[in-house]
Amino acid sequence: MTKNALRGVVLSCALVPFVSILAQPGPAATCTRSANLLACADAEGNSYSVNTVGNTLYLRGFEKDGHRYWAQTNSRFGQLTFFTGIASNGEAWVGYTRRVGWTTINRFSSSGGGSSKFTCSRMTGC
User: Fold this and answer.
1) What one-character-per-residue DSSP string does 58-113 give?
2) Taking the domains of the chain in order of start, what are their residue ranges?
């Protein structure tokens, strides 16, 4: 998963509890929602779904540009959320998000060599 795409997934899941995944620029996604499932697709052919079970989020998606399917699991423990993911091309990633007041501290790394640490605030963004 590209660094920007991964950052979008991290931001989406870290900042908004039941996800409004519009962290990346581009056309808005069209979504369908049930009690525990959110399924979205955008005009560019990307799609994803988010399923909630207790404190765990299960995400699955398709990235049109890379022609890849991906899956990610986020587990929340108080102010900390850990996540792991894998894509159909074999790339894997891990990371965490820690909430401190209105700020989140985010860190991730991937088997493709990408890694990043960034801080986001609800007042100033990322």
Assistant:
1) EEEEEETTTTEEEEEEEEEETTEEEEEEEETTS-EEEEEEEEETTEEEEEEEETTS
2) 3-121
